[in-house]
Amino acid sequence: MRNDGVIQKMEALIREYRMICAGDHIIAGVSGGADSLCLLLGLMELREVFGHQVSAVHVEHGIRGEESYRDAAFVRSFCGERGIECHICHCRVPEYARMHGMSEEEAGRELRYQAFFSEAEKYAGQQVKIAVAHHLGDQAETMLFHLARGTGIQGLTGMAPVRGAVIRPLLTADREEIEAYLAACGQEFCEDATNAMDAYSRNRIRHQAIPALKQVNRRAVQHMYQAAAQLREIHEYLKKQAGIAQERCCVIQAGSVQIQKEPFLQLDCVIQKEMVHQLLAALAGGGRNLTREHVSQVIGLFNRQNNRQVDLPGQLQAVRVYGGVEICTGKSAGHGTQEWESVRQDSDILGKEGRLDMEKLFSFRIRENFSGHMSQISKKKYTKCFDYDKIKAGFCVRNRQPGDYLVVDASGSRQKLKKYLVNEKVPVTERGQLLLLADGAHIMWVVGYRISSYYKVETHTRKILEVTFCGGEEDEGTDSGHDLRG
Protein backbone atom coordinates (compact mmCIF):
# COMPACT_ATOMS: atom_id res chain seq x y z
CA MET A 1 0.00 0.00 0.00
CA ARG A 2 1.32 3.48 -0.91
CA ASN A 3 1.26 6.18 1.77
CA ASP A 4 -0.83 3.84 3.85
CA GLY A 5 -1.57 6.35 6.62
CA VAL A 6 -4.98 7.06 5.06
CA ILE A 7 -5.67 3.35 4.58
CA GLN A 8 -4.70 2.63 8.19
CA LYS A 9 -7.07 5.34 9.39
CA MET A 10 -9.86 3.93 7.23
CA GLU A 11 -9.25 0.42 8.55
CA ALA A 12 -9.18 1.62 12.17
CA LEU A 13 -12.42 3.59 11.84
CA ILE A 14 -14.16 0.72 10.04
CA ARG A 15 -13.18 -1.62 12.87
CA GLU A 16 -14.14 0.86 15.62
CA TYR A 17 -17.67 1.32 14.30
CA ARG A 18 -18.03 -2.12 12.67
CA MET A 19 -18.88 -0.42 9.40
CA ILE A 20 -18.17 -3.40 7.16
CA CYS A 21 -18.63 -7.14 7.58
CA ALA A 22 -17.53 -10.02 5.37
CA GLY A 23 -19.83 -10.35 2.37
CA ASP A 24 -21.12 -6.76 2.52
CA HIS A 25 -21.63 -4.90 -0.75
CA ILE A 26 -20.31 -1.36 -0.47
CA ILE A 27 -21.67 1.26 -2.87
CA ALA A 28 -19.27 4.21 -2.96
CA GLY A 29 -20.50 7.65 -3.97
CA VAL A 30 -17.84 8.84 -6.43
CA SER A 31 -17.84 12.41 -7.77
CA GLY A 32 -14.41 12.15 -9.33
CA GLY A 33 -12.88 14.54 -6.79
CA ALA A 34 -9.91 13.71 -4.60
CA ASP A 35 -11.94 12.62 -1.56
CA SER A 36 -14.21 10.17 -3.37
CA LEU A 37 -11.39 8.66 -5.44
CA CYS A 38 -9.38 8.12 -2.26
CA LEU A 39 -12.45 6.49 -0.68
CA LEU A 40 -12.95 4.14 -3.63
CA LEU A 41 -9.28 3.18 -3.88
CA GLY A 42 -9.12 2.61 -0.14
CA LEU A 43 -12.19 0.40 -0.18
CA MET A 44 -10.63 -1.60 -3.02
CA GLU A 45 -7.37 -2.03 -1.08
CA LEU A 46 -9.22 -3.15 2.05
CA ARG A 47 -11.25 -5.88 0.35
CA GLU A 48 -8.76 -8.52 1.46
CA VAL A 49 -9.03 -7.29 5.03
CA PHE A 50 -12.83 -7.17 5.39
CA GLY A 51 -14.02 -9.46 2.57
CA HIS A 52 -16.48 -6.99 1.00
CA GLN A 53 -17.45 -6.12 -2.56
CA VAL A 54 -17.29 -2.61 -4.03
CA SER A 55 -19.22 -0.78 -6.73
CA ALA A 56 -19.59 2.93 -7.52
CA VAL A 57 -22.36 5.45 -8.21
CA HIS A 58 -21.71 8.83 -9.84
CA VAL A 59 -24.47 11.47 -9.83
CA GLU A 60 -24.30 14.05 -12.62
CA HIS A 61 -26.24 17.02 -11.26
CA GLY A 62 -27.09 18.88 -14.46
CA ILE A 63 -25.51 22.10 -13.16
CA ARG A 64 -22.01 22.65 -14.58
CA GLY A 65 -22.60 21.84 -18.25
CA GLU A 66 -19.68 20.21 -20.08
CA GLU A 67 -17.58 20.13 -16.93
CA SER A 68 -20.22 17.96 -15.27
CA TYR A 69 -20.29 15.53 -18.22
CA ARG A 70 -16.48 15.47 -18.21
CA ASP A 71 -16.48 14.37 -14.57
CA ALA A 72 -18.98 11.59 -15.33
CA ALA A 73 -16.83 10.35 -18.21
CA PHE A 74 -13.75 10.45 -15.96
CA VAL A 75 -15.44 8.32 -13.29
CA ARG A 76 -16.73 5.85 -15.88
CA SER A 77 -13.23 5.47 -17.35
CA PHE A 78 -11.58 5.23 -13.92
CA CYS A 79 -13.90 2.42 -12.83
CA GLY A 80 -13.75 0.64 -16.18
CA GLU A 81 -9.96 0.45 -16.08
CA ARG A 82 -10.12 -1.22 -12.66
CA GLY A 83 -13.06 -3.51 -13.29
CA ILE A 84 -15.29 -1.67 -10.82
CA GLU A 85 -19.01 -1.80 -11.53
CA CYS A 86 -20.19 1.80 -12.00
CA HIS A 87 -23.61 3.39 -12.43
CA ILE A 88 -23.92 6.96 -13.76
CA CYS A 89 -27.10 8.73 -12.68
CA HIS A 90 -28.18 11.94 -14.44
CA CYS A 91 -30.49 14.36 -12.64
CA ARG A 92 -31.52 18.00 -12.84
CA VAL A 93 -30.84 19.66 -9.53
CA PRO A 94 -32.03 23.22 -10.40
CA GLU A 95 -35.45 21.99 -11.53
CA TYR A 96 -35.80 19.72 -8.50
CA ALA A 97 -34.83 22.55 -6.16
CA ARG A 98 -37.45 24.89 -7.67
CA MET A 99 -40.12 22.19 -7.59
CA HIS A 100 -39.54 21.38 -3.91
CA GLY A 101 -38.71 24.87 -2.65
CA MET A 102 -35.17 24.13 -1.48
CA SER A 103 -31.64 25.28 -2.21
CA GLU A 104 -29.62 23.61 -4.94
CA GLU A 105 -27.23 22.31 -2.29
CA GLU A 106 -30.10 20.62 -0.44
CA ALA A 107 -31.60 19.31 -3.67
CA GLY A 108 -28.28 17.88 -4.80
CA ARG A 109 -27.80 16.07 -1.52
CA GLU A 110 -31.32 14.62 -1.61
CA LEU A 111 -30.97 13.44 -5.21
CA ARG A 112 -27.56 11.89 -4.52
CA TYR A 113 -28.90 9.81 -1.66
CA GLN A 114 -31.95 8.83 -3.72
CA ALA A 115 -29.55 7.56 -6.38
CA PHE A 116 -27.44 5.68 -3.82
CA PHE A 117 -30.39 3.92 -2.24
CA SER A 118 -31.99 3.19 -5.61
CA GLU A 119 -28.75 1.47 -6.63
CA ALA A 120 -28.79 -0.49 -3.37
CA GLU A 121 -32.14 -2.00 -4.38
CA LYS A 122 -30.33 -3.94 -7.12
CA TYR A 123 -28.49 -6.05 -4.60
CA ALA A 124 -31.46 -7.75 -2.96
CA GLY A 125 -30.40 -10.42 -0.51
CA GLN A 126 -27.06 -8.78 0.25
CA GLN A 127 -26.06 -6.53 3.11
CA VAL A 128 -25.55 -3.18 1.38
CA LYS A 129 -23.77 -0.12 2.77
CA ILE A 130 -23.51 3.35 1.22
CA ALA A 131 -20.00 4.83 1.59
CA VAL A 132 -19.58 8.60 1.29
CA ALA A 133 -16.30 10.51 1.30
CA HIS A 134 -16.67 13.05 4.10
CA HIS A 135 -13.34 13.67 5.80
CA LEU A 136 -11.95 15.44 8.85
CA GLY A 137 -12.15 18.91 7.30
CA ASP A 138 -15.78 18.34 6.29
CA GLN A 139 -16.61 17.48 9.89
CA ALA A 140 -15.02 20.70 11.15
CA GLU A 141 -16.79 22.76 8.47
CA THR A 142 -20.14 21.23 9.41
CA MET A 143 -19.66 22.03 13.09
CA LEU A 144 -18.62 25.64 12.40
CA PHE A 145 -21.43 26.12 9.89
CA HIS A 146 -24.03 24.96 12.43
CA LEU A 147 -22.42 27.02 15.19
CA ALA A 148 -22.44 30.18 13.07
CA ARG A 149 -26.12 29.74 12.15
CA GLY A 150 -27.10 29.04 15.75
CA THR A 151 -27.32 25.51 17.07
CA GLY A 152 -27.41 23.38 20.17
CA ILE A 153 -25.61 20.19 21.08
CA GLN A 154 -27.10 18.19 18.20
CA GLY A 155 -25.75 20.56 15.57
CA LEU A 156 -22.29 20.35 17.12
CA THR A 157 -22.23 16.56 16.91
CA GLY A 158 -21.39 16.91 13.23
CA MET A 159 -21.67 13.87 10.96
CA ALA A 160 -21.84 10.42 12.53
CA PRO A 161 -19.39 7.81 11.21
CA VAL A 162 -22.37 5.47 10.77
CA ARG A 163 -25.98 6.50 10.22
CA GLY A 164 -28.21 3.64 9.19
CA ALA A 165 -26.77 2.14 6.02
CA VAL A 166 -24.53 5.18 5.37
CA ILE A 167 -20.88 4.89 6.40
CA ARG A 168 -18.05 7.45 6.37
CA PRO A 169 -14.74 5.54 6.42
CA LEU A 170 -12.65 8.66 5.64
CA LEU A 171 -13.93 10.77 8.52
CA THR A 172 -10.64 10.75 10.47
CA ALA A 173 -8.40 11.57 7.47
CA ASP A 174 -7.64 15.16 6.51
CA ARG A 175 -7.49 16.63 3.02
CA GLU A 176 -3.70 16.88 3.00
CA GLU A 177 -3.38 13.15 3.72
CA ILE A 178 -5.89 12.35 0.99
CA GLU A 179 -4.06 14.37 -1.65
CA ALA A 180 -0.71 12.91 -0.55
CA TYR A 181 -2.15 9.41 -0.94
CA LEU A 182 -3.37 10.14 -4.46
CA ALA A 183 -0.04 11.74 -5.38
CA ALA A 184 1.82 8.63 -4.19
CA CYS A 185 -0.52 6.54 -6.35
CA GLY A 186 0.05 8.87 -9.32
CA GLN A 187 -3.70 9.35 -9.50
CA GLU A 188 -5.26 12.49 -10.99
CA PHE A 189 -8.68 13.73 -9.91
CA CYS A 190 -11.36 16.20 -10.99
CA GLU A 191 -11.54 19.73 -9.62
CA ASP A 192 -14.99 21.30 -9.18
CA ALA A 193 -14.60 25.00 -10.03
CA THR A 194 -17.38 25.95 -7.60
CA ASN A 195 -15.23 24.74 -4.69
CA ALA A 196 -13.02 27.80 -5.14
CA MET A 197 -15.90 30.28 -4.96
CA ASP A 198 -16.26 32.09 -1.64
CA ALA A 199 -19.85 32.94 -2.52
CA TYR A 200 -20.80 29.73 -0.72
CA SER A 201 -20.79 29.81 3.10
CA ARG A 202 -19.07 26.46 3.47
CA ASN A 203 -16.32 27.55 1.08
CA ARG A 204 -15.62 30.64 3.18
CA ILE A 205 -15.35 28.44 6.25
CA ARG A 206 -13.01 26.08 4.36
CA HIS A 207 -10.79 28.80 2.91
CA GLN A 208 -10.74 31.28 5.78
CA ALA A 209 -11.94 29.94 9.14
CA ILE A 210 -10.25 26.52 9.10
CA PRO A 211 -6.78 27.86 8.14
CA ALA A 212 -7.06 30.50 10.86
CA LEU A 213 -7.88 27.85 13.46
CA LYS A 214 -4.94 25.73 12.31
CA GLN A 215 -2.69 28.71 12.97
CA VAL A 216 -3.92 28.68 16.56
CA ASN A 217 -3.37 24.91 16.80
CA ARG A 218 -2.32 22.72 13.90
CA ARG A 219 -4.49 19.89 15.28
CA ALA A 220 -7.59 22.06 15.52
CA VAL A 221 -9.73 19.92 13.19
CA GLN A 222 -8.70 16.71 15.00
CA HIS A 223 -9.71 18.27 18.30
CA MET A 224 -13.07 19.30 16.80
CA TYR A 225 -13.65 15.71 15.65
CA GLN A 226 -12.98 14.48 19.18
CA ALA A 227 -15.33 17.10 20.62
CA ALA A 228 -18.05 16.09 18.16
CA ALA A 229 -17.73 12.44 19.21
CA GLN A 230 -18.02 13.37 22.88
CA LEU A 231 -20.99 15.65 22.20
CA ARG A 232 -22.66 12.84 20.26
CA GLU A 233 -22.45 10.60 23.33
CA ILE A 234 -23.86 13.38 25.51
CA HIS A 235 -26.69 14.05 23.08
CA GLU A 236 -27.62 10.38 22.90
CA TYR A 237 -27.85 10.33 26.68
CA LEU A 238 -30.03 13.45 26.71
CA LYS A 239 -32.31 11.96 24.04
CA LYS A 240 -32.70 8.81 26.09
CA GLN A 241 -33.54 10.75 29.25
CA ALA A 242 -35.95 13.02 27.36
CA GLY A 243 -37.68 9.93 25.99
CA ILE A 244 -38.16 8.61 29.51
CA ALA A 245 -39.46 12.03 30.56
CA GLN A 246 -42.03 11.97 27.74
CA GLU A 247 -43.56 8.83 29.19
CA ARG A 248 -44.00 10.58 32.53
CA CYS A 249 -45.18 13.96 31.26
CA CYS A 250 -46.95 13.64 27.91
CA VAL A 251 -50.35 12.63 26.61
CA ILE A 252 -50.01 11.96 22.88
CA GLN A 253 -52.98 12.23 20.53
CA ALA A 254 -53.43 12.70 16.78
CA GLY A 255 -51.65 15.90 15.81
CA SER A 256 -51.07 17.10 19.36
CA VAL A 257 -49.13 16.48 22.55
CA GLN A 258 -50.15 17.69 25.99
CA ILE A 259 -47.32 18.22 28.48
CA GLN A 260 -48.57 17.86 32.04
CA LYS A 261 -47.35 20.64 34.28
CA GLU A 262 -46.53 18.96 37.60
CA PRO A 263 -44.24 16.16 36.36
CA PHE A 264 -42.69 18.49 33.77
CA LEU A 265 -41.62 21.10 36.33
CA GLN A 266 -39.88 18.38 38.34
CA LEU A 267 -37.47 17.70 35.48
CA ASP A 268 -33.99 19.18 35.23
CA CYS A 269 -33.91 22.24 33.00
CA VAL A 270 -31.72 20.58 30.34
CA ILE A 271 -34.14 17.63 30.07
CA GLN A 272 -37.11 20.00 29.82
CA LYS A 273 -35.51 21.78 26.88
CA GLU A 274 -34.47 18.60 25.09
CA MET A 275 -37.90 17.03 25.52
CA VAL A 276 -39.74 20.11 24.22
CA HIS A 277 -37.37 20.38 21.25
CA GLN A 278 -37.95 16.72 20.36
CA LEU A 279 -41.72 17.14 20.53
CA LEU A 280 -41.69 20.29 18.38
CA ALA A 281 -39.42 18.68 15.79
CA ALA A 282 -41.60 15.57 15.66
CA LEU A 283 -44.83 17.50 15.17
CA ALA A 284 -43.37 20.10 12.79
CA GLY A 285 -41.75 17.50 10.55
CA GLY A 286 -38.18 18.44 11.45
CA GLY A 287 -36.24 20.87 13.57
CA ARG A 288 -34.62 23.04 10.89
CA ASN A 289 -36.48 26.26 11.77
CA LEU A 290 -36.72 25.63 15.51
CA THR A 291 -34.61 27.80 17.81
CA ARG A 292 -33.89 28.06 21.52
CA GLU A 293 -36.38 30.94 21.61
CA HIS A 294 -39.23 28.69 20.44
CA VAL A 295 -38.40 26.14 23.13
CA SER A 296 -38.26 28.92 25.75
CA GLN A 297 -41.65 30.27 24.60
CA VAL A 298 -43.26 26.86 25.12
CA ILE A 299 -41.72 26.40 28.57
CA GLY A 300 -42.71 29.96 29.48
CA LEU A 301 -46.39 29.13 28.94
CA PHE A 302 -46.42 27.04 32.13
CA ASN A 303 -46.27 30.30 34.11
CA ARG A 304 -49.04 32.03 32.16
CA GLN A 305 -52.84 31.99 32.28
CA ASN A 306 -54.99 29.42 30.53
CA ASN A 307 -55.61 29.94 26.78
CA ARG A 308 -52.41 31.93 26.30
CA GLN A 309 -50.70 30.69 23.15
CA VAL A 310 -47.65 31.11 20.92
CA ASP A 311 -47.29 30.43 17.20
CA LEU A 312 -44.41 28.18 16.22
CA PRO A 313 -42.70 27.00 13.01
CA GLY A 314 -44.28 24.16 11.07
CA GLN A 315 -47.81 25.53 11.58
CA LEU A 316 -47.70 24.61 15.25
CA GLN A 317 -49.31 26.34 18.18
CA ALA A 318 -48.58 25.89 21.87
CA VAL A 319 -51.52 26.66 24.16
CA ARG A 320 -51.70 26.91 27.96
CA VAL A 321 -54.45 24.55 29.01
CA TYR A 322 -55.74 23.28 32.32
CA GLY A 323 -53.03 21.05 33.76
CA GLY A 324 -50.26 21.94 31.33
CA VAL A 325 -49.36 23.00 27.79
CA GLU A 326 -50.72 21.52 24.58
CA ILE A 327 -48.71 21.63 21.34
CA CYS A 328 -50.99 21.33 18.29
CA THR A 329 -50.55 20.92 14.56
CA GLY A 330 -52.54 23.13 12.19
CA LYS A 331 -55.41 20.64 12.12
CA SER A 332 -55.65 20.44 15.90
CA ALA A 333 -55.43 24.21 16.18
CA GLY A 334 -58.49 24.63 14.01
CA HIS A 335 -57.06 25.21 10.52
CA GLY A 336 -59.12 22.39 9.05
CA THR A 337 -56.36 20.57 7.14
CA GLN A 338 -56.89 16.89 6.55
CA GLU A 339 -53.60 15.56 7.82
CA TRP A 340 -52.80 13.14 10.60
CA GLU A 341 -49.23 13.87 11.70
CA SER A 342 -47.53 10.96 13.40
CA VAL A 343 -43.83 10.91 14.23
CA ARG A 344 -40.49 11.57 12.68
CA GLN A 345 -38.10 8.66 12.32
CA ASP A 346 -35.31 10.53 14.13
CA SER A 347 -37.35 11.35 17.25
CA ASP A 348 -37.93 9.48 20.48
CA ILE A 349 -41.64 10.23 20.64
CA LEU A 350 -42.48 6.55 20.08
CA GLY A 351 -41.71 5.83 23.72
CA LYS A 352 -40.17 2.86 25.51
CA GLU A 353 -42.05 0.14 23.66
CA GLY A 354 -41.89 1.95 20.32
CA ARG A 355 -45.70 2.17 20.17
CA LEU A 356 -48.09 5.05 19.52
CA ASP A 357 -51.86 5.03 18.97
CA MET A 358 -53.51 7.87 17.05
CA GLU A 359 -57.24 8.09 17.76
CA LYS A 360 -57.21 4.29 17.53
CA LEU A 361 -56.44 4.66 13.81
CA PHE A 362 -52.80 3.57 13.67
CA SER A 363 -50.23 1.88 15.84
CA PHE A 364 -46.49 1.90 15.23
CA ARG A 365 -43.87 -0.50 16.51
CA ILE A 366 -40.10 -0.53 16.05
CA ARG A 367 -38.54 -3.98 15.79
CA GLU A 368 -34.76 -4.03 16.07
CA ASN A 369 -32.21 -6.72 15.22
CA PHE A 370 -34.37 -8.38 12.58
CA SER A 371 -33.10 -11.91 11.97
CA GLY A 372 -33.76 -11.93 8.23
CA HIS A 373 -36.45 -14.62 8.38
CA MET A 374 -39.15 -13.34 6.03
CA SER A 375 -41.74 -15.59 7.68
CA GLN A 376 -41.76 -13.03 10.52
CA ILE A 377 -43.10 -10.31 8.20
CA SER A 378 -46.83 -9.65 8.31
CA LYS A 379 -48.81 -10.42 5.15
CA LYS A 380 -51.96 -8.80 6.47
CA LYS A 381 -53.71 -6.17 4.44
CA TYR A 382 -53.74 -3.59 7.23
CA THR A 383 -50.41 -4.41 8.91
CA LYS A 384 -47.30 -3.51 6.96
CA CYS A 385 -43.56 -3.71 7.65
CA PHE A 386 -40.97 -1.27 6.34
CA ASP A 387 -37.18 -1.05 6.36
CA TYR A 388 -36.78 1.64 9.02
CA ASP A 389 -33.26 2.69 8.00
CA LYS A 390 -34.45 3.69 4.52
CA ILE A 391 -36.74 6.39 5.88
CA LYS A 392 -35.12 9.74 5.04
CA ALA A 393 -37.28 12.74 5.94
CA GLY A 394 -39.41 10.96 8.53
CA PHE A 395 -42.91 9.52 8.26
CA CYS A 396 -46.38 10.93 8.69
CA VAL A 397 -49.94 9.88 7.91
CA ARG A 398 -51.73 12.27 5.57
CA ASN A 399 -53.84 12.65 2.45
CA ARG A 400 -52.34 13.02 -1.02
CA GLN A 401 -50.40 16.07 -2.14
CA PRO A 402 -48.97 17.25 -5.48
CA GLY A 403 -45.74 15.47 -6.36
CA ASP A 404 -46.48 12.27 -4.44
CA TYR A 405 -44.95 9.13 -5.92
CA LEU A 406 -44.03 5.55 -5.04
CA VAL A 407 -41.54 2.98 -6.29
CA VAL A 408 -43.28 0.15 -8.13
CA ASP A 409 -40.59 -2.46 -8.73
CA ALA A 410 -37.23 -3.72 -7.50
CA SER A 411 -35.34 -1.71 -10.13
CA GLY A 412 -36.48 1.53 -8.52
CA SER A 413 -38.99 2.63 -11.17
CA ARG A 414 -41.16 5.48 -9.91
CA GLN A 415 -44.82 6.07 -10.57
CA LYS A 416 -46.82 9.16 -9.71
CA LEU A 417 -49.46 8.45 -7.11
CA LYS A 418 -52.11 9.88 -9.41
CA LYS A 419 -51.21 7.40 -12.16
CA TYR A 420 -51.20 4.51 -9.70
CA LEU A 421 -54.70 5.42 -8.44
CA VAL A 422 -55.95 5.68 -12.02
CA ASN A 423 -54.48 2.26 -12.89
CA GLU A 424 -56.08 0.77 -9.77
CA LYS A 425 -59.43 2.28 -10.81
CA VAL A 426 -59.83 4.05 -7.47
CA PRO A 427 -62.88 6.32 -7.84
CA VAL A 428 -62.03 10.00 -8.14
CA THR A 429 -64.33 10.82 -5.23
CA GLU A 430 -62.34 8.49 -2.95
CA ARG A 431 -58.78 9.46 -3.89
CA GLY A 432 -58.65 12.57 -1.73
CA GLN A 433 -59.78 10.58 1.32
CA LEU A 434 -57.17 7.82 1.10
CA LEU A 435 -54.76 7.67 4.01
CA LEU A 436 -51.09 7.62 3.05
CA LEU A 437 -48.00 6.79 5.09
CA ALA A 438 -45.47 9.20 3.60
CA ASP A 439 -41.74 9.93 3.81
CA GLY A 440 -41.75 13.42 2.32
CA ALA A 441 -43.23 13.06 -1.18
CA HIS A 442 -42.36 9.35 -1.27
CA ILE A 443 -45.47 7.32 -0.38
CA MET A 444 -44.51 4.37 1.80
CA TRP A 445 -48.02 2.86 1.93
CA VAL A 446 -51.33 3.58 0.26
CA VAL A 447 -53.40 2.24 3.14
CA GLY A 448 -55.56 -0.64 1.98
CA TYR A 449 -53.55 -1.03 -1.21
CA ARG A 450 -49.79 -1.40 -1.62
CA ILE A 451 -46.48 -0.32 -0.17
CA SER A 452 -43.60 1.23 -2.09
CA SER A 453 -41.11 -1.38 -3.25
CA TYR A 454 -38.29 0.83 -2.00
CA TYR A 455 -39.19 0.26 1.68
CA LYS A 456 -39.72 -3.50 1.43
CA VAL A 457 -38.10 -5.55 4.16
CA GLU A 458 -35.24 -7.66 2.81
CA THR A 459 -33.10 -10.34 4.41
CA HIS A 460 -30.41 -7.71 5.10
CA THR A 461 -32.85 -5.36 6.89
CA ARG A 462 -31.92 -4.80 10.53
CA LYS A 463 -34.60 -2.46 11.92
CA ILE A 464 -38.29 -2.68 11.00
CA LEU A 465 -41.14 -0.20 11.34
CA GLU A 466 -44.38 -2.15 11.73
CA VAL A 467 -47.54 -0.11 11.10
CA THR A 468 -51.10 -1.30 11.73
CA PHE A 469 -54.14 0.57 10.50
CA CYS A 470 -56.52 -0.10 13.37
CA GLY A 471 -59.38 1.41 11.39
CA GLY A 472 -59.23 -1.52 8.94
CA GLU A 473 -61.36 -4.61 8.99
CA GLU A 474 -61.10 -6.58 12.23
CA ASP A 475 -60.58 -9.82 10.31
CA GLU A 476 -58.26 -8.29 7.75
CA GLY A 477 -56.88 -11.49 6.25
CA THR A 478 -53.93 -11.38 3.88
CA ASP A 479 -53.18 -9.53 0.67
CA SER A 480 -53.94 -10.93 -2.72
CA GLY A 481 -53.30 -9.68 -6.21
CA HIS A 482 -50.35 -7.37 -5.48
CA ASP A 483 -47.08 -9.03 -4.53
CA LEU A 484 -45.63 -5.74 -3.24
CA ARG A 485 -48.33 -4.82 -0.76
CA GLY A 486 -46.51 -6.27 2.18
Can you give a write-up of this model?
A hairpin with a 2-residue loop joins strand 5 and strand 6. Strands 3-2-1-4-6-5 form a 6-stranded mixed beta sheet, with helices on both faces. It has a 5-stranded antiparallel beta sheet with strand order 7-8-11-10-9. 40% of the residues lie in helices and 19% in strands. The chain has helices spanning 5-17, 34-45, 47-50, 66-82, 93-100, 104-120, 136-149, 153-156, 175-185, 201-216, 220-249, 261-265, 269-284, 292-300, 331-335, 417-423, 428-431; strands spanning 25-29, 53-60, 85-90, 128-131, 162-163, 166-167, 250-253, 256-260, 309-312, 316-321, 324-328, 339-340, 357-358, 362-368, 383-387, 396-398, 405-407, 414-416, 436-439, 442-446, 463-469. The protein contains 17 helices and 21 strands. With 486 residues, it is α+β, with helices and mostly antiparallel strands. Helix 7 crosses helix 10 (201-216) and helix 7 (136-149) crosses helix 11.
The backbone outline, from C-alpha atoms, is: globular
Poorly predicted spans: 331-360, 474-486
* Major sheet details: 6 strands, mixed
How many runs of DSSP E, i.e. beta strands? 21
Report the end-to-end length measured between terminal Cα atoms. 47 Å
For the largest sheet, list the strands in their spatial order: 3-2-1-4-6-5
Beta-strand fraction estimate: 15-25%
Structural class: alpha+beta
Overall residue-averaged pLDDT value? 85
Q: How much helicity do the residues have?
A: 25-40%
Radius of gyration: 24 Å
Tell me the number of helical segments per DSSP (H or I, 4 or more residues long): 17
